[in-house]
Amino acid sequence: MALVALSADDAEEARAMADDHDVAFPILYGLDPVEDAERIGAYYDEEKGIIQPAGFLLEGHRVRMAVFATGPIGRLRADETLKEIDQLRGG
After folding, report:
1. For the chain, how long is the longest CA-to-CA vector?
2. Would you list the DSSP string of the chain?
3. Are the CB atoms for 64 and 39 separated by under 8 Å?
4. Residue 68 CA to its chain's centroid (Å)
5. What is the separation, in whole angstroms, between the first and last Cα of the chain?
6. How far is it, in rounded angstroms, from Cα 27 to Cα 25?
7. In 10 A of CB 47, how many CB atoms?
8. pTM
């Protein structure tokens, strides 16, 4: 399995965030908040002009878990994700 992040930030902002938080996985940057929110089913907050987080756990081309936030609550948590991955591996 692989971990990848998507960001609406430009390359410089995405790189700075990754450096600040010691991120060791790829960050794809430059998403269009309006168009790409529609593509992945995420919530675009028109008032704030931002795309709210959406998290997906994929197994091949199959979505095993999806979490969509409309604000600061309801985001994909690391402990829940690791538990789901363990279950997928037969643990």
Report:
1. 43
2. ----EE-SS-HHHHHHHHHHTT--S-EE----HHHHHHHHTPPEETTTTEEPPEEEEEETTEEEEEEE-SSSSSPPPHHHHHHHHHHHTT-
3. no
4. 9
5. 15
6. 7
7. 5
8. 0.70
Q: Which amino acid is at 11?
A: A
Q: What tokens appear for 72 in the block? A: 């600061």
* Cα gap 36→71, rounded to integer Å: 17
Instruction: Give the pLDDT means over successive 10-residue stretches in the chain (91 positions).
Output: 85 94 91 92 91 87 87 80 85 73
**Cα–Cα distance between 45 and 41 in angstroms, integer?**
13
Amino acid identity at 26: P
Which of 31, 23, 39 minimizes the C-alpha distance to 7? 31
